[in-house]
Structure formats: C-alpha cells, structure tokens
## 1
Amino acid sequence: MSTLSPTVEAARRMVKAIAPGAEEIGYRMERPRSRSMMWKIVRFKAAGSDVVGIGTFEDHSTIYFYRGRELDDGSGLLEGRGKQMRFITLRSPADAERGDVKRIVRKAFKLGGAEPHAAKAPARPK
C-alpha cells in the first residue's frame, strides 16, 4: 500500500494507533474508472465486526463507519444519510490527526466491542 496518498496513510496510522488490536483487511479493488466512485482501500474489524474503513476519491479521502448512525453526536462532523453508515471527509493528513476525528474513531471501536487506546494526556509541568 506504499503508493497511497499521504492522507490515506495518515488515517491508517491513526486508526492503528487507536485500535492496535483491530484486524486490518485490505480491499482487492482496482482504482475506479469513475471519478465519483470511492476506491475502498482498507477496513478494520474488532470483535468480529467491521468498524471503520478508509477509502479515497481523486481529491479527498474518507474514513467511514459501519455503525455511523449510532455514532452521530449532532456535531455535524459525520456526513451521510444511509441506513447505517456515516463518513468523515479528510482533505489532508492533518485532518486524520484532529481531536474530533480521533474521538469518533475511538467511539466507533468502543461501540464495536473493542477497547481503544485512550488519548495520552499532555504532561503536566512540575
């Protein structure tokens, strides 16, 4: 997966840091011919269920949540109107490191039955 965009790689690193025990499953999908179709790259499973996936379009990437409807907290961060799935648009590697994005990913893994790694609190000066 070394030819992936820096945004996809940043999203993968972030998910793996939050849920190191999650099973990473690569899709065997060729790059789509249509600019409007998502290229599904990888999904992560925990406790036997799909939790999050990462895909990309020509000009942005997406982290999508299989039980996203249950994660919606009214903040407007999650997009989509499907029966279950929701997604977050990532336009740069920095988007994958945002605190609100990480919070939703942790919540997704907790909902999926896995105990995600908690964020490290900043060191307090002595």
## 2
Amino acid sequence: MCEALERTASTEIELGYQMGIRNARGAHFRPDTGDPERRLAAKYRAIAERLRFEYPFVAGVFDDLSGEYRHDADRHDTQGAARRRIG
C-alpha cells in the first residue's frame, strides 16, 4: 500500500485515505478531555517516523493525521473545561 500511495502522491487519494482512517473509528464515547485523540496523534506520529525515509509522501499523510488529532485533542480539552466551569 505504501508503494502505491508513494507512486501516485495524489492529494485526492491522500484525503480519501485520511477520511477513511478517521471514519473507521466509528461512534465512540466522548470524555471531557482530548486524551483519546492525543493517543491517536502519538500512534500516527510514530507510524510517520517509521516511514519517513522510505516513503516520505506516506509519512506526510500520517503527519497530517497526527496534527488533526492533536488539534482535536486541544479542542476537546477546551470544550471539556468550559463544560466543567458551567457545571
């Protein structure tokens, strides 16, 4: 799969692949923190690091996923803190 993605280096395929990964998570319990998203960000960052030299395009796909999950984690932290303040 990495070789095919690397050969095409298509933005459309990249976005579709990322969407598939994010949608595969399905419905899930939403705690008041971004901890689940931080774990996913770390997972995808580690994958990117393993692929970085052999498959730089694919590593970038996983870097982007990691960044999206880090952003989501921050947003969930902020929303959770606001809910706790409101009571």
## 3
Amino acid sequence: MKPFYALLGVLFIAVTVVFFVLMGRNSGEEQTVRLRTNVDEIDTSYPTSQPQQVETRVIETERVVPVEVPVKVGSTSSGEASSSSEKVQRKPAGMNQQQSQGNQPVEVIQRKTISFNGPESEQTVVANTPAEWADFWEQHATGQPPVQFNPDKETLVAIFLGSRNTGGYSVELDSVRQENGSIHVYYKERKPGMSQAVTQAFTTPGLVITLPKTTRQIVVEEKQS
C-alpha cells in the first residue's frame, strides 16, 4: 500500500507542476498579445514636435549717395546761366590759383598819355577828389589838368617820368591788378630807338588813368622789359 500512495503523490505533484507551467505559458502569451494590442492602439496621429524651418531672405538695398545738383540762380552778361551749390563751390573755368586767392585784374576806366606840360621831376600821384588832382597839377605842372574824373565813381592815378631831352619817351601801362588786398599798377618806360625820328625838344612823358572808386592802398611799380 505504501508504494501505491507514494506513486500517487508523485503523480499529483507532476500534474500540479505541469498545470502551473501551462498556466504560466498562457498568461505570458496573453500579456504579449495585450502588449502588442496596446502598442497598435497608440494614436499615431498625435503631432510630433519638429523644428520648423523658417525661410529667411536677405533684402539687398542700394546705398543712396547724396549728389548735390547745381541750381540755376541767374545769368551772366553773356547770357549763360550761372550756378551755385550750397556745399560745394566750383572754380570758374580758366581761373588760376592766384585768381582764386583774390588776385584779379582791375578795370581801367580812362587812360591819357601826356608828353608836354607835365612835372619836370619823376612823380606819382593818387587823387580821390578833383581838388587833390588840381592842387598837384598846380604845384608840379603848367596849364590845366589833362583829365577830369568823377570822384564818386573813380580814383585817379598819374605816373610821370620827369623831363626828357627829346620826344619818343612814354609811359606804357602793363596791368592793373588786385593783389593781397592792394591795387598794383604796373607800367613800363618806353624809350626811342637808335634810328627813330623824334621831337628835338624837352618832353615830360606821363600817363594818367582812372580806376573804379577804391579805398584800398595803390602801389605803382615799374616793370622791366
């Protein structure tokens, strides 16, 4: 009897072990199926966060350079329009460096050459009134002053070489210029040539000119030939 019960106990244990093994397999397969089902049921339509690509454009702009355009403001005596600029001033065509610094020619209004009745000594005079001119002439020459001028508009300049033994001498005006704030009168002395026929008498060569009215200093200079 004892062997029978022992065998029966072994069989019971074996059946129990097999039962639990089978139950474990079924549970594992069920969990695997459930796991797969849960994975399949995941909503794949849920938006995933992805970096957005932003299109950037570089806009090229042209660099604007201010250009100053001359504006017509008037016309010259020749009819050509003159121009001026608020910032930038251009030199007139042909103006040299001396002219741009204020060295410019001065207009000569009257010009009178004298050969007789002038001062017998070398003289230079600047007169702003007829009274000054008449007083000089009375002291250094004879007769009436050879030139009359308007003291409101003109300044008189006279150059005398003094007495010469013959004719053929003269005072030639070279130029009159405004230089460094002063008026410069340049002249040359002309002498007779060796074979030139001249007056055989004493002469007093001179030159009288009038310039636009000025209060500037007047400098008279002989220019060598």
## 4
Amino acid sequence: MKKSLTLFTFIFLQLSVYAQNIIEFTLVNNDSIPIPYANIFFENKTMGTISNEDGHVKISIPKNITKNDNKLIVSVLGYELKKLSVHEVLNMDFVRLESKNILLDEVIIKPGLSAEKIVNKAFDLYNKNFPESAFVAEGFLRHTEKNKLEYKWLIEAAIQMYDPGYDKDIEHIKTNIVKIKKSYDNRNIDTLDFYRNYLSNVKGMSFKKSQKKVIDIQKVSIDEIEKAIIYNDNKSGNPEYVLSSGINPIRYYNQKNAFLDKNLLKKHSFKIDTIITSDIDNADICKIKITPKNPPAKLNKHFGKYLLPYGWIYINANDYSIVEFEYILIHDNKVRVFSKIGGSKVHSKFTVKLMKINGKMYPKYISYEKPKIFFRMGAIMDSMVSKKEINKENQYFLKQEILFTNIITNSNLIKVDTDWNSNIFTPRPYDKEFWDNYNILLESKEEKKMINDLEKKISLKEQFEHQ
C-alpha cells in the first residue's frame, strides 16, 4: 500500500509540474468578447504564438524562462499592450485588454501624405524594413480541405522554414516537416481531373491530347495515377510551394512573375480608415482600406479585370514597415460562372501578419484560402450541363495556415540539412512527448467539432476496411 501511495504521489507531482509548464487562458475585451489573432510572446524572446478565433491561448513555457522574472506580452492592434509575469498568468482563466482605436481624418493624420503615398513609401522601403540576412522560422502548419458540409482532409505538422533574406530570390526558400500531429484524408478524388491536370502541367500536353489520354485511363498504370495524385496534392498542399511562390505576397513583392509589384499598386484605391497606437514601439499604425479602381483595371497577367481586389494593409507611420496585410480577390458579377463552380464569390484570400525583431519585420502568421474549383470539376460540369443544382459535396475549399512560433537569426544556429523534406504526405510516426510541449495554432470550437467528426469517420472507415 505504501509503495502504491508513493508511486501515486510521484505521478501526481509529475503531472503537476507538466501542467505548470503550460500557460492557457482566453483573451477578451471589456465586454467579454474574445479577441482573435493577438500576438503572445515572452519579453525579449523570439518565441510566441497567437490567440485563435475564440480568443483562446495556449503556450509552452521554454526551459530558459524564469516564471517569476520573465514577462508574457499580449499585443494586438487596437488594444492596450499588456505585460504579465509568467507566474501571474499561470493562475488566470481570462486576460482582459482595453481598446484604444482612434478615428481620424486622413488630412489630419499626415498633411500632404495620402494613403496611396503611404503604401508606396512602405514598398519603397521594403529592403530597409525586411531582413536581408538568412533566418530560420519554426512553427506549426495546418492544412485543411472541406466542402460546405464537413472537413474532408486535415494535416497538422511542425515545420521549419529557411529564408536566405528578403533581397534574395524567393525560390531559395526551403522547408522541412519535422513531425506530423494529425493526418486524415476522407476525400472523394476525381482521378480524371487529377490525371488531366498532371498531363497538362508536368507532361506539357495540350488539352485535346490530355483529354484523349483521360478517356483511355483504364490503360494507364497505377504508378502513373499515383504520380498524378502526388503532384496535385503537393501543388496545393506542400508548404514550400506556398512559402516560395506568389501566394506569399509580401515576400514575393517585385520578384519575377510576382502578382504584387509596383505597377500593380497603381491599380488599387487606398484610403486610411483608422489610426491605431501600438505600444510595442510607440508607433501609430495606419489601417488602410484596399478597394478596386473605378472602373476596375486588369491587375496583371495572373489576374484579369474580372477579379476585384479588397482588403486591408497596416503600416507603421514611423518607419513605414508593413505590419499586417489582408488581400481578397472577388469574382466580378460578369463572371458568375466561376462563383457558381467554386461555390463562392471569393477567388482567393491571403493573410500575412508580421512581427518586429531587432528592427526588421519577420513572418508571424501566413494563411492562404481559396475554392478548389478543379478538384471535382468533372462532377461539377456534369451538373451544369444537365442543369442540375451542383452538389455541395463537390465544392471544395482549401485553407493552409502557418503560425511561426520561433525565429532564429543567429547565423551560428542556422543550418539547412540535406535531409530536409517538405512533403507533408510522407508518413511519420506520432511523437506524443514532442507534441505535448510544442506550440500549435489552436482550433476554434467550430473547427474542433469538424475535426472530431472527421476523426470519427476515418476511424469507422478503417474499421470497415479491416473487417
């Protein structure tokens, strides 16, 4: 009995120590409304996280942090910055922030300096405000695909990204998948569409030739079909593709084939909406609204005049550094067919949040969303030809989020191993100890329910297949 009691006490103490190494709370305003996407980090450290859509925060305490001396910083635009001792916040269920937005007329803000000039100046000073030295960003990736009813595909992973510096070609960005937390696939893949896309983009076939090949798909080897599926999945899901292509808009600025460049900026309208005082560096942040020109201009070779740009860009009025960027492309009503096929007027949405470290802006959070209109195109086109209502199960929506929880700028600690692997579809064993102490992007309540439903379906599917 004594031996059992001693063992129980030991286990209890171990669990208590573990629990005290995790900070968890909900961030709200004075009206108890949750505050999403707030920046949470340890003072004088490059390690942190963000609050989820429900304002929930969960962050591991690093081994080099002293609970009594170190501070946890809670910062979000439009609210007072809050500094809390690690020991203090361990016992808090809620953290409240005071709002501090100031609405001002554009002329009062910067006499003679319009919103358009502020935006242009921010991009003129691009090389000054972004790092030109190499860095490694460690973080958490969540890739989801869903229709309007449920999640169909989910991957969560720990990720490393090597960036040679913003003055270097973006193609030199490298990524590595360290660990896989979850990987569930319950999609109904349209093999014909996947194979046609593969033939067009990899084999360079014309539509006519690829269509002929698809008709005789029974003659195609299983290996070739697998290559087509891997190609399509990697094109939309591989984080290296997301981080080293035009869909990482701020990083890709002014590079070859970038969709965001100096010429493109002239094809948008900008208006200052709000001035927000930031306590991080005592700066005024200009919240600038992005809308289409009137009449709409053809944006560039990637996006025609029937895609209308909307969004927000947040710019530090002191040094003109870009703090946040949200950019949404909407289908014009003249091309309703694309909205009908995709199940949404949104063509694509990009969100980038940045944080300042030693005077330079580094990525904190990147997300990319869009309808995946070519995923079940065959089934969708059949519905349209027969004039039937499109089955919502065939309209897929892709979202990839990357939360960077640690930035390494010390050149002595930066290394890219030859065995780095960016393929999120490579099987890896689950590492419980690793994930118990790794900072992740928390799901919202709605996302958690959809993930739980997907897990149950995969479990039932696996049980059925093994019977």
